Amino acid sequence: SYSQKLDSVSYQKELGSIADKVKRIHFLTDRIGTSLARIHPELLGQKGANAARAANLCKSDLVTRMVYEFPELQGLMGGYYAVKSGEPESVSRAIAEHYRPTQSGSPIPSTIEGQIVALADKLDTLAGIFAIGQKPTASKDPYALRRAALGVLRILIEGKLPLDLASLLESALEAQPAGKRDATTLNELIDFVMERLRGYYVEQQLPSEMFEAVKALGITEPLDFDMRVQALRAFWALDSARQLAAAHKRVRNILKQAGETSAVVDAVRFTHPAERALAAKLGELQMTGDYAAQLSQLASLREPVDAFFDMRAANGEPVMVNDPDPAIRSNRLALLAQLDKLCRSVADISLLPG
Fold it and tell me: Most exposed residue of 50, 66, 71, 129, measured as fewest CB within 10 angstroms of its CB?
């Protein structure tokens, strides 16, 4: 009965009423639940139905006299009213918690249903306000978009939800009734939220170079981004990490100056044992989804990489990568290209201080 009154409550003049916003939250809740069903198959059943029910009821308490008198009780009172109305416990809890996290350090929703509804609500707010051109300025953020963006990130990371931020924001823009919903707006939204991710890691005292090393790969799935960041932290504690970062910088510079390189390494064209040793070591590495293990394997490249750059001829003269023979030079560059690819499999190691 309260939900029926939401049509008369304005959310934002271009974005419609609170009832309109609830419809968009329901749409996004369904979209998110479908995306998560591959790892949470229960969302195809009762949990999914409960999330949808919570989405439909999550703003209904805004028209009650209790929340009118005490706005800080929004959501919480909705949870109580849902219990009294006979809604399932998971529905009432999702309603009560869907504004979470309310501030830095406060908890995210405790259930998957609540996390999905909270994501849908925050994504809709971000997309709608950006679409109508009212994004925050340096001094003003009337719709609390920075807090909404951080909330989205924390739910995805701390809730361990493997969802792509770009896809989520694209769906949220698609649902908006007005404003610019083009690629430019989507990119602005992604950049805005990713800057909040930078701040999230600043609070965790993550060196800025580590953030940039992962960001350079274009990762837009916050959970995946975080897994790479945490693996990078552990990698940086290894003695060989800095030397490998310095070597990777050198590799990147050489490849940049060389331009396009061959993708194929021909072992027949090796002229020095250090080339063979490096190629053999690269062939041993197994690139899996375990980022910590991948970086640990990369650390083992330090010695063969150092030996490669310290190559000497029989007469003691240094052996250069850019050999006068085009075939030998091309082969060495292809070997370095393989090394470069591995050094950017988890993060761009060259961007770390070496």
Answer: 71
Contact 166, 183 (CB under 8 A): no
Q: Which pTM value belongs to this model?
A: 0.93
Burial class (CB in 10 A: 0-12, 13-18, 19+), 245: buried
CA–CA separation, 229 and 300 (whole Å):
20
The pLDDT tens digits for 47-60 are 999 999 999 999 99
**DSSP assignment of 290-306, as one string?**
-HHHHHHHHHTTHHHHH
Q: Of the candidates 193, 238, 189, 197, which has an alpha carbon nearest to the alpha carbon of residue 214?
A: 197
Q: Is 242 buried (19+), middle (13-18) or exposed (0-12) by CB count in 10 A?
A: middle
Cis peptide bond N-terminal to 207, omega within 30: no
Cα–Cα distance for residue pair 229/30, rounded to 1 Å: 30
DSSP string, 136-148: --SS--TT-HHHH
Nearest to 222 by CA among 197, 189, 185: 197
